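Same chain as my last thread, 553 residues:
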Amino acid sequence: MKLAKMRAPIALLAITGLALAGCASGSRGGDAQESTGGGTGIELVQLTPEATGEVDRVTWNSTYGELASLDPAKAFNYSENTIVSNLCEPLFQMQPDFSVQPNLATGAETEDGLTWTIGIRDDVTFWDGSPMTMDDVVYSLKRHNDPAEGSYWTGGVTANIADVEQTGDWEVTITLNTPDQLLSSSLSTVLGVVVQEEQRKAAGENYGNPDTGVMCTGPLQFTPGDWKQGQSITLTRYDGYWNADRAAKAQEVEIGFVVDPTAIANGLSTGEIQGSYDVPLPALGQLSSSTSGSLYYGEGMQIMAIISTGNGLFGDPAVRRALTRATDRQAIADTVYEGTGTPSRSVVPQAPWDAISGVEELRDEQLPDLSYDIEAAKAELEQTDVDLTQPIKIAYPSERSFYADILNEMANGAKELGITLEPTGVPSAQFGSFFSDPAAREGFDGFVTTNYLSAPEPLLHLVSVAKTGSDQNYAGFSDPAIDAALEAALAEGDPQRRAELTVEAEALVMQQQPWVPINDLAVRLYMDGAVTGAPASFVYLYYPWAADLGSAE
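reply #2:
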């Protein structure tokens, strides 16, 4: 197989000292590495104790409920990504320490950020035993730019891809429209996932459905019929997996779709459910004293924020800045998030930034002060002449009452400014379409999100949130100065200078605040005492976490 020379850095963020993190090994398993969460008063970990052996069956739960599809191109949320990450593999892979390493790729090189040459492994097979070919790789990389595929990842990085072609026996070349020195990191997400072309085309409109599924290369596989709609999905070990060192330790992992916090807490306490990420906040008290297993708090890349739709009073940047300053976000961290959150200083969670040296002082100098200060909030409003009598209507999924608590705290701050903020609950099924259908957002000025970095790189998240036409730019937000700053950072080949340019772009974004940042969040993971090994850090949306699960005895 071809090994491409590494000129562009692949280990993008080997995190060694985070404010919300500590040192940890990048290897699978190993002893749990602990650190004191910055301001949270809890110990945050990257790993849990390594499994001592194999296990026949593990029962898990998907707190956000049932997935809609197994199609990686439709994996743009917790329910889908948490499961697909165990089945379908990307060219590069984020590790529990947040570094990015070659996976189905052997390496990458670029001179100018415009042309990327990527070496591909020649020993990978799909679950049906057929070899992964270069045709499969090229086809998969092009899927997101094909309108017929309806990929949820269209825009941003995808829109920047001009061409993908095979340029060697085991080599692919990606040509971009504008320079991007971080492409390999983006290819550790769904954008870099490889699926079998033949099965995708044969499945047609049924691709990713329970009766058809997908055909991928991961350590766990899906067999049509093993998805019981409304109940659970079962993944089984793929014994022909190409990476023997990372083969799944469990013969099968059944993942349920329970969303009720009480039912989840009781299931975890009794061992009926052996593990879950995103443990519901109301369950923390019960599970922290449980003797059946362990509650882990992991290093996070998540943020709770409120996204502007660009409409109404909330569409004004000065109003958004004022509401940020008028909201007691520390109170939200302490009460709503039970001490597992910290007030955000940016739309980018703090943890990935703390891995980059030489930028802390720059961020302190350039980022706006977001601390709780009613008088400062009133001063922000003096910069606008909009009609403050307009109510601000913010949507949240009605089944998740903690969002109402957060918005009520913001409403209290808004009242101090003479502004009316109206939290409005909508059913989760309807709320989910806010992220894909502009029509669903009509009539609302903003909506809540528990969001995350798809790759451990602050710049990519800023691009996703604030660049014109990007995938998470839900308001049609566009600022030429921000676009230019983001493009300059993406084109910079020197990592240190790129970090400095990213800070400059971040400062511009935070002046506009297309998202109002509330809290950075720690991972909440519970595992029964009989099993162990799942990573505790926030990698489970793009890393095959279930393959690490095994016996604790």
